[in-house]
Design a protein that fits this description.
about 550 residues; alpha+beta; 4 domains; 9-stranded mixed β-sheet; 7-stranded mixed β-sheet; 12 helices
């Protein structure tokens, strides 16, 4: 090996080497850079695709779970429940829901949320699927109105959604009866809608019932359409027997409504949305409301009104012309007299125009004079039994010519119709009069006389004379029987012989008087000779009347 010594020209170069640094990108940094880019892209995508976040308030969160409960529309998931917390006043629960991105356009003022659970109400079973999958939040989107992020959820699921075309109407009722949300609404016994909801009026006297009629049946709701409660059975006892009507078995169980347009009325224009109608309790009441003109009168009865009720019919010769409105008891303690004033409401439009002209009915012209004439002719009111089974009474108006004349009076400013006793009262009065007359009969004296008579008859029947007379009568009858037998044995054959001989004589006589018998010819010839002699005598008498001298001088020759 050659060693380099000091002073050699290569010695300095080997002792001071030159170091150079080179800059280059290491492949190790590629992985974190790619991960950062992917994370940024995922974050951007999540933020860009994230839907709006809303809050919905409910009274209870029963069956709801954060992170699991879904929001569905037509069974399609459109959101997820994120958090559940109580509100500040601790009365409600506040749900935070993350909706899908495309839900932003229909989250408006009219959007509705409710919790779908298993429910059994008004004869319907809904939400049975939630028994296995759990409750979920239903939503009805809205396309009109302002955008909104805070909502008040519905505690009851809506009966009608915006997907079903139709109209909403409001009915005013005095009481609810058996109606419930989802109760059916019928038109000619076809279900055409449902009861949506009901609320108590602000004054507490009426109930507002909201109903929905689906298309195309909503066109049949007119301005003069009448609605009535169709729950239960409508029983009517007529001359043809017992008639029972009901809209359906469903309405019988859970209640329902019905409406119609009566044939005797011209149909009005189609009713607009939210039109208000009166809800009648019965079909009969709805039908009778077409009579708009009503007038009140008073009737005083002294009979018992047991069986008479408010709403009882007022009839004229079998035709209802009104109803009973009210009645009470009026006492006169000074004279110990009690009367029962009954207020009746007459509907003059029920009367035929010949009875009272339509113009006079409408204007009331000469009404008082007409009533005066009717009362003078015996127009009276009487209580009658309308149903023997229930004992229900009604007020019957008719003419009673034999009724005592009275003048028309007034009570509380209303014309007072005079009354006559009811038929049952007349029967009772007649029975009372009969009992009074019967009580005046001397029954005790008659009984004593009858007893004496019976004693005398007993004495007569048991007397020996009567027995002897009966025995003598028996002997007489026996003798008469013996005589009759003898008569039959001796006399009857002789009578038969005589009758046979008489028949022979009659037969011979018939031969003598026959047309071809000799006796008939001789008799005819004798009669002719007698007739000729008669004529000769007549001529002789005529000649002597003219020539009486012929008796002395004889007949002169002509």
């Amino acid at each position: 090996m050659t060693e380099q010594t000091e002073g050699s020209p290569y010695a300095s170069e080997a002792a001071t080497p030159e170091i150079k640094q080179h800059r280059s990108f290491s492949i190790v940094w590629i992985v974190p850079v790619v991960a950062l880019l992917i994370g940024a892209w995922l974050a951007y995508k999540a933020i860009s695709e994230k839907g709006p976040t809303i809050t919905v308030t409910f009274e209870s969160a029963d069956g709801l779970e954060a992170g699991k409960t879904k929001v569905k529309y037509k069974d399609v998931e459109v959101g997820t429940l994120q958090t559940i917390e109580l509100d500040k006043n601790l009365k409600n629960v506040k749900l935070t829901i993350e909706m899908n991105k495309d839900a932003d356009s229909y989250l408006r003022e009219e959007t509705k949320f409710w919790v779908v659970r298993a429910r059994v109400a008004a004869g319907q079973v809904t939400g049975l699927g939630t028994l296995f999958s759990g409750a979920y939040i239903g939503v009805i989107p809205a396309t009109e109105g302002k955008l909104k992020r805070d909502f008040k959820g519905l505690e009851k699921p809506p009966i009608v959604t915006g997907e079903v075309p139709g109209r909403v109407f409001k009915l005013v009722a005095s009481r609810l009866g058996s109606l419930n949300p989802s109760s059916p609404v019928y038109f000619r016994q076809i279900e055409v809608g449902k009861v949506v909801d009901y609320t108590l009026g602000s004054n507490g006297e009426k109930i507002d019932v909201q109903i929905f009629i689906q298309s195309p049946y909503s066109q049949f709701v007119r301005s003069n359409t009448r609605f009535w409660v169709a729950s239960g059975l409508d029983a009517d006892l007529t001359a043809n027997g017992l008639r029972i009507n009901t809209e359906s078995v469903v309405s019988l169980l859970i209640g329902g409504l019905a409406f119609t347009n009566f044939d005797n009325e011209l149909p009005g224009p189609e009713a607009e949305e939210e039109t208000r109608f009166k809800l009648y309790e019965t079909y009969q009441e709805a039908r009778d409301d077409r009579f708009t003109l009503k007038r009140d009168y008073m009737v005083e009865f002294k009979d018992s009104v047991r069986g008479l009720s408010v709403g009882a019919p007022v009839e004229f010769r079998g035709i209802q012309i009104g109803t009973v409105v009210d009645f009470g008891l009026q006492a006169d303690f000074d004279n110990l007299s009690f009367t029962i004033p009954v207020r009746v409401r007459i509907e003059p439009e029920r009367l035929v125009s010949s009875f009272a002209g339509a113009e006079q009915i409408a204007s009331g012209t000469a009404q008082e004079d007409r009533i005066h004439r009717m009362v003078k002719k015996g127009f009276r009111a009487q209580l009658k039994t309308g149903n023997l089974l229930t004992g229900q009474l009604f007020v019957d108006l008719d003419f009673y010519p034999d009724a005592p004349p009275v003048e028309l009076s007034y009570s509380n400013g209303l014309p007072l119709f005079p009354s006559v006793p009811s038929t049952s009262r007349e029967i009772m009065q007649g029975a009372t009069r009969f009992l009074k007359k019967l009580d005046q009969i001397p029954l005790e004296a008659i009984g004593k006389d009858l007893q004496n008579t019976m004693a005398g008859m007993d004495k007569l029947v048991n007397s020996p004379d009567l027995r002897d007379a009966v025995q003598s009568l028996g002997d007489i009858l026996n003798e008469l029987k013996t005589t009759t037998q003898t008569l039959n044995a001796d006399t009857v054959p002789r009578i038969n012989t005589a009758l046979a001989e008489m028949a022979t004589v009659l037969k011979n006589l018939d031969g003598w008087v026959s047309a071809d018998a000799p006796l008939q010819g001789d008799l005819r010839k004798t009669l002719e000779e007698l007739a000729a002699a008669g004529r000769a005598i007549s001529d002789l008498a005529d000649m002597l009347e003219r020539h009486p001298e012929a008796l002395i001088q004889g007949k002169k020759e002509q």
